[in-house]
Write a structure and sequence with these properties.
Distance between the termini: 53 Å
CATH architecture: 3-Layer(aba) Sandwich
Number of helices: 6
CATH superfamily: HUPs
Bound molecules: 4'-phosphopantetheine
Length: 167
């Protein structure tokens, strides 16, 4: 089935992302997880931290590679020989924005299709933003993220707490 590019900001990566990566790895010969910045969002984690968390989460998947990218997704896909983009789709609210991006990417790079994997029911309402909010407010996110992410969230939030207290 060739090489698939799975792009995102992954701030932080969740069990929902891992589910799509694992299922993608079962369908495609290789999955390239492309970690980038979204100009509309200010990330909590640096690109290096997001790469490290994803690499730890994907260590058991031999046909998955986690790579950073800047610029257009279509260029990233072309430069790495990816013939398809893979994305996860949750509630209907995802649909409109994903449809727009899929059509735009197909226009920018003719023939580059996006294949959507429906989220697993458990992850229907899971998002990186909610994970960050719950963690910031002292809630338990262990059911939503990999232990590597939980550890980094704890460390990051402790750092923010120290700065907030002027230390
Ligand atoms: O995890 P996110 O923030 O929902 O991912 C959005 C992402 C990274 C997939 C999207 O912003 C993207 O493709 N960025 C790369 C820049 C690009 O190609 N923009 C045009 C998209 S049609």
């Amino acid at each position: 089935m060739g090489i698939a590019a799975y792009p995102g900001t992954f701030d932080p990566p969740t069990n929902g992302h891992l589910d799509i990566i694992e299922r993608g790895a079962g369908i495609f010969d290789r999955v390239l997880v492309g970690v980038t910045a979204n100009p509309a969002k200010t990330p909590l984690f640096s690109a290096g931290e997001r790469l490290a968390m994803l690499r730890e989460m994907c260590a058991h998947l031999k046909n998955v590679e986690v790579v950073p990218f800047k610029g257009l997704l279509v260029d990233f896909a072309r430069d790495h020989g990816a013939s398809v983009i893979v994305k996860g789709l949750r509630a209907v609210s995802d649909f409109e924005v994903e449809l727009q991006m899929a059509l735009m990417n197909r226009t920018l790079s003719s023939g580059l299709d996006t294949i959507f994997l429906m989220t697993s029911a458990d992850n229907l309402y899971l998002s990186s933003s909610l994970v960050k909010e719950i963690a910031l407010l002292g809630g338990d996110v262990s059911g939503f993220v990999h232990p590597a992410v939980q550890k980094r969230l704890k460390k990051k939030l402790a750092g923010i707490g120290r700065k907030g207290r002027g230390r």
